[in-house]
From TrEMBL, chain A:
One of its GO terms (biological process) is fatty acid beta-oxidation using acyl-CoA dehydrogenase. GO terms for molecular function: electron transfer activity; flavin adenine dinucleotide binding. Belongs to the ETF alpha-subunit/FixB family. InterPro entries: DHS-like_NAD/FAD-binding_dom (IPR029035), ETF_a/b_N (IPR014730), ETF_a/FixB (IPR001308), ETF_alpha_N (IPR033947), ETF_asu_C (IPR014731), Rossmann-like_a/b/a_fold (IPR014729). This is Electron transfer flavoprotein subunit alpha/FixB family protein. Keywords: FAD, Flavoprotein.
From TrEMBL, chain B:
SMART domains: ETF. This is Electron transfer flavoprotein small subunit. Residues 23-218 form the Electron transfer flavoprotein alpha/beta-subunit N-terminal domain. InterPro entries: ET-Flavoprotein_bsu_CS (IPR000049), ETF_a/b_N (IPR014730), ETF_b (IPR012255), ETF_beta_N (IPR033948), Rossmann-like_a/b/a_fold (IPR014729). Its cofactor is AMP. Coiled coil: none annotated. The lineage of its organism: Bacteria, Bacillati, Bacillota, Bacilli, Bacillales. GO terms for molecular function: electron transfer activity.
């Protein structure tokens, strides 16, 4: 394998119903930096049906090239069809690095592609860098149950691949009218060649918790002792108009469903205010919330690592502090409303 | 009769494990080895499918000899047979080398009893990647179906399975030919307490134990550390941010200081509009 043949940084562009997944735009931002460092091109790989028109958006977010596979067979994501397109593209144009969002689709596709190429794949990366000289990708992620970070390399194979967590990289501000080169590709693939069929797509109509979209998150950890103790998290969230978040331990203990889990194995969140109550602050949790606007920690243990990752902290018993906070907040809001009325 | 293989892993209980702060490595002695919790759901689903249609559930794992214990746990859940592949030459495998070795074991198991369905847990709690399942499917050239949270039907006669694949805002109903590989979400089922007869069976059960030499057509270069494209170059603790301001005073005073900070973000709270 001659590494000289492998250049450019690629991002797999995830698309659904004509909309590009936010994580793909974030990866274009991250990929741009890597490409600049390597003085190479940044390319998006776009696979779908009637998706060609999205190329302009991909250029606006930083790409120089967009490879497009626009065929009816790609109407729905299926591992086998998408994998064949990506393998075709990779074998033809030989990228140095391919990045995928660590979404269900991105992880599914990347795992399959890595096996067939074959090459190394780093999962759920939270930090990316590249060696300027060698093009070696430095992909870092929480490891060993999330207590520590590990940097993972793939020295002997190209392309190097990683899936990257949503909301940890930053998308560039789109540049209106920024242009690039569209390369249209086609593969001969018949419906009979694909062994899976999507029979139906069911959108969840019931309102689901989307903690990644919340402005205020009140998260609780195992320091609250029990599912009953955890109720104060619900009460504070309700008072503040926020949503409930939780650490991995709490979800594994079954106090709240997995949709509330913040961190490496859960959701990455960036609310304006994040409360970490009774959460010790394992690295796997911190990577999921460290970009929050304002992080407030409440913990009995003054030595808890969470105090090194918060903006403001209270060392104290949550069962004492939180009820006061709820009451004082309600009082304060009433005062606010009164003063507001007076102004009018 | 269906033959279902569940792929499992014995893992250190990462909730309990302590890090050695000097060497930045896991102190494995501090954590008991358990059956990867996600894999318990994979085995349970395999058992449920067998109970519905008839057949056999085999579990397969790669690991050190004590991983027999994880297999016994699967027998408690209701699996029929267990296979452990264990050999120093497997050590240090990343996901690519792991999927290669496990595939070789499944190929061997298939020779005496062809496999219709393979089920994996979503991921392991120590590796956290979810890459081995799809890797096995690719190597066997069967369709991988990830994020499965419901098995609707397995029709051996007509050679298909129908499952639900969960995604961020809903799910899709997918039909695949058999054999195929499912990697399942935790929400797919609840693993009940083991029954007494199963516990007795597990206590007496002795799994098949194979070394590299027991497998067929193995390319040694693809095993273990040698067969792993990825390497961990370093482990590190992220540079600590400066650390926050810790409020002083009694509980009430602390809350007051906190509140004055929070209320600076008034726009988040004054949702009441002027009507």
């Amino acid at each position: 394998m001659d590494f000289q043949d492998y250049k450019d940084i690629w991002v797999f562009i995830e698309e659904k119903d004509g909309v590009i997944a936010p994580v793909s735009l974030e990866l274009l931002g991250a990929g741009r930096k890597l490409a600049d460092k390597r003085a190479s091109n940044l390319a998006g790989v776009l696979i779908g049906e009637n998706v060609k028109n999205l190329a302009s958006t991909i250029f606006e977010y930083g790409a120089d090239i967009v490879y497009v596979y626009d065929q009816p067979i790609f109407k729905h994501y299926r591992t086998e069809s998408f994998m064949k397109a990506l393998l075709d593209c990779s074998n033809k144009y030989k990228p140095e690095i391919i990045l995928y969002g660590a979404t269900s689709t991105g992880k599914d596709l990347a795992s399959a592609v890595a096996t067939d190429l074959p090459t190394g794949l780093t999962a759920d990366t939270t930090e990316l860098d590249v060696e300027e000289e060698t093009g070696l990708l430095l992909a870092s992620r929480p490891a060993f149950g999330g207590n520590i970070m590990a940097t993972i390399l793939c020295k002997k194979y190209r392309p190097q691949m990683a899936t990257v967590r949503a909301k940890v990289m930053k998308a560039l501000t789109p540049v209106r009218g920024r242009m690039g080169k569209v390369i249209e590709e086609n593969i001969a693939l018949a419906e009979e060649d694909i062994r899976t069929k999507v029979l139906e797509i069911v959108k969840e109509t019931t309102k689901k918790v989307r903690i990644d979209e919340a402005d205020i998150i009140v998260a609780g950890g195992k320091g609250l002792g029990s599912a009953e103790g955890f109720q104060i998290i619900h009460r504070l969230a309700e008072t503040l108009g926020g949503v409930v978040g939780a650490s991995r331990d709490v979800v594994e203990a079954g106090w709240v469903p997995h949709a509330h889990q913040v961190g490496q194995a859960g959701v990455t969140v960036t609310p304006k205010i994040y409360f970490a109550i009774g959460i010790s602050g394992a690295i796997q949790h911190i990577v999921g919330m460290k970009n929050s606007g304002l992080i407030i920690a409440i913990n009995k243990d003054s030595e808890a690592p969470i105090f090194e990752s918060c903006h403001y902290g209270i060392v104290g018993d949550a069962f004492e502090i939180v009820p006061i906070l709820i009451e004082e907040f309600k009082n304060a809001l009433t005062r606010e409303e009164v003063s507001h009325v007076r102004e009018v | 009769m269906l033959h279902i293989v569940a792929c499992i892993k014995q893992v250190p209980d990462t909730k309990i494990i302590k890090m050695n702060p000097k060497t930045n490595t896991m102190d494995r002695r501090t954590a008991p080895a358990i059956l990867n919790p996600y894999d318990a759901h994979a085995v349970e689903e395999a058992v449920r499918i067998r109970n519905r249609y008839g057949g056999t559930v085999s579990v397969v794992t790669m690991g050190p000899p004590p991983a027999v214990k994880a297999i016994k746990k699967c027998i408690e859940i209701g699996a029929d047979e267990g296979y452990l592949i264990t050999d120093r030459r497997f050590a240090g495998a990343d996901t690519l080398a792991t999927s290669y070795a496990v595939t070789k074991a499944i190929e061997k198991i298939s020779k005496t009893n062809p496999v219709d369905l393979i089920i994996c847990g979503k991921m392991s709690i120590d590796g956290d990647t979810g890459q081995v399942g799809p890797g096995i499917a690719r190597r066997l050239d069967i369709p991988p179906l990830t994020s499965v949270n419901k098995v609707v039907e397995v029709n051996q006669e007509k050679g298909y399975a129908i499952v639900h694949r969960k995604f961020e805002d809903g799910h899709e109903v997918v039909q695949s030919t058999l054999p195929c590989l499912l990697s399942v979400e935790k929400t797919i089922n609840e693993v009940p307490y083991s029954t007494f007869p199963n516990m007795l069976k597990a206590a007496k059960y002795e799994p098949y134990i194979w070394s590299v030499d027991d497998l067929e057509d193995v390319d040694i270069k693809q095993l273990g550390l040698k067969g792993s494209p990825t390497i961990v170059s370093k482990v590190w603790t992220p540079s600590k941010p400066e650390g926050g301001t810790i409020f002083e005073g009694n509980a009430k005073e602390q809350v007051e200081q906190l509140l004055s900070i929070i209320l600076e973000k008034k726009e988040l709270f004054t949702v009441k509009e002027e009507s």
